[in-house]
């Protein structure tokens, strides 16, 4: 009787793992787009900080040189001008409190 828990444990470990679902290969089908202004969307993606977390710019600049021209987005301005296409720069407001 004392072997029963051990045998159940071993038997349970012999089952096959579940198979993960796979996406079908091929072209992504067309689908209806949400309404909006495509120019404003492009401007938001290339100029504004839609992701507002990350490494401080001072630390980033010490670790990485400015991106080569072919990796930049020409229409960018501000903090993201010299960053590669897959990064966005932004400024953070520094709040100062009054002394207590």
Largest sheet: none
User: What's the gyration radius in Å?
Assistant: 26 Å
Please mark out the parts with pLDDT under 50 across 5 or more consecutive residues, or reply none: none
> How are helices and strands ordered from N to C?
HHH
Distance between the termini: 71 Å
How many DSSP helices? 3
Kindly state the number of beta strands.
Answer: 0
% residues in beta strands:
under 5%
Explain this structure to me?
- By secondary structure, the protein is mainly α.
- The chain has a domain of 61 residues.
- Helices cover 27% and strands 0% of the residues.
- The protein has three helices and no strands.
Give a brief outline of the structure:
The chain is 27% helix and 0% strand. The protein has helices at 3-12, 38-47, 57-63.
How do the strands and helices of this protein lay out in sequence?
Elements: H1 3-12, H2 38-47, H3 57-63
Characteristics:
100 residues; mainly alpha
């Amino acid at each position: 009787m004392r072997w029963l828990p051990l045998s159940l444990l071993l038997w349970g470990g012999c089952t096959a793992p579940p198979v993960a679902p796979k996406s079908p290969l091929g072209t992504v089908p067309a689908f209806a787009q949400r309404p909006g202004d495509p120019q404003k969307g492009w401007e938001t993606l290339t100029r504004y900080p839609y992701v507002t977390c990350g490494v401080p710019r001072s630390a980033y600049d010490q670790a990485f040189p400015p991106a080569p021209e072919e990796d930049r987005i020409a229409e960018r301005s501000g903090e993201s001008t010299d960053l590669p296409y897959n990064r966005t720069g932004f400024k953070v407001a520094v709040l100062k409190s009054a002394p207590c």
